[in-house]
Task: structure prediction
Amino acid sequence: MTQSITRPDFEIHPRLDARPLAGLLHPERPLWTAGELTALTSTVAAELPGSLREVLRFDPAQRWWARLALTEGVELWLLSWLPGQHTRPHDHGGASGSFTVVQGRLSEEYRYPAGPIRGRTHSAGDTLGFGAGRAHQVTGMGPEPAASVHAYSPPLVPTREYETLHDVPDEIPTLAHFRPGAGHRP
Ligand SMILES: [Fe+2]
Result:
């Protein structure tokens, strides 16, 4: 059953079954740790697969995403990845984050400031949490279309893109929260 819940302290995507998700959002929590974000994305992926399928879309023209929820402390997104669709190298402006792969596989090249560039593969059910300062580039590996649930705290902090991960500075300053119209995307 799809039911929207509207409260002044959070919003939930109208196509989601809002009640189980509302219990996970902790609107009183102003800042989430990487561990708390990890618990959120893994729980949403494991316990709300039907709701996620209701929302999930794939777009051959461009990478697709939808915001699932937003509070003062956290934002939650569903992203899809057709084979080869990818982000540019980016950081999260000093926000902490987590993602859980719902289906398919993602490849990730990542780097911590002043560290080496590393690579890994994330398969369905895998979760990764990270603190401020991590930069990465994520690609849908195929052959199956991939989907993943992502959470960031603080929410609505703009990402910063780089030509390559070699260009990530040794220190990543924390950016201010999003201002409407500033072009935020996950
Ligand atoms: Fe990212």
